Amino acid sequence: MHKFSLVSQNSMASFIFTLIFVKQNSQKINAIYCFQIVSGEKISSKLRNLNRLISNSSIKFALYKLAETHVFINLLNILKTITNLKYSSIKDIANAHNIPYFQFQDVNDKNFITHINNQKGNQFAVFTTGQIVRKSTLKEFKNYPINCHGSLLPEMRGPAQYIWYHLKNYEYYGITFNNLQYELDSGDILYQNKFKIPKNISCFYLHYLIAQKWGTEFKNLNNSLKFPPDSIKQTNLNSSTVSLPDADAFKQLKTRNIKVIKLSDFSKIISDIRKLN
Fold first, then answer.
1. Structural domains of the chain sorted by starting position, each given as residue range(s) with its CATH number in brackets
2. Over 70: is that where the pLDDT of 52 sits?
């Protein structure tokens, strides 16, 4: 039986993927590692990294990430307190299934690398953290790192596909599991599939659907997974790359009346979470 470690963060996408993955594979998980959304131990380094995010994208994208992380997770915490919601964090999921849970500040922390390498029988590490994994870190990994990506690679390499699908008028969205490499989304492809984009949905809800498909589609990869896994090398044929969405991207969304987030998104997503309790 293959053994996995999950490398995650407390965001909506990581939470949804982890919830579904654990429900299907709890006996196969050695540990769950959870990282900070913004790397760095000191407040000053966190602020520098946050400022870098804003400089490379826009204040609106930083606010979107705030909603996808702190607002969403805090809402779950409130609902857990006042209702019968079972899970409000990745730690809750781990504890409910007796899975060892560990927190680190930075995915490139040498203590993390040593810890995950020492997990007995561990063969695969599945990444949904947004932190950048350095080349030196990957060289020290003893297990096979699997990346969860929100497009049909090599199409739309890069971040925030859930926004670019709308900007580029796509009628479908895709997910890919690939070998995590330092070069941007360039790793060998293990599995991918595509799905129709429902009409009139927000960027946030599309982000949720991508995370949901990571969870439900992983079983199809797992059914044929071996170590090392079969894979397909990417080529640059039909490849494309997207960047972090800037202020102009959000202006385009507004002009075309495409919602970034709807209040109804939260109720629909929470309704799905309750079904997985």
1. 4-275 (3.40.50.12230)
2. yes
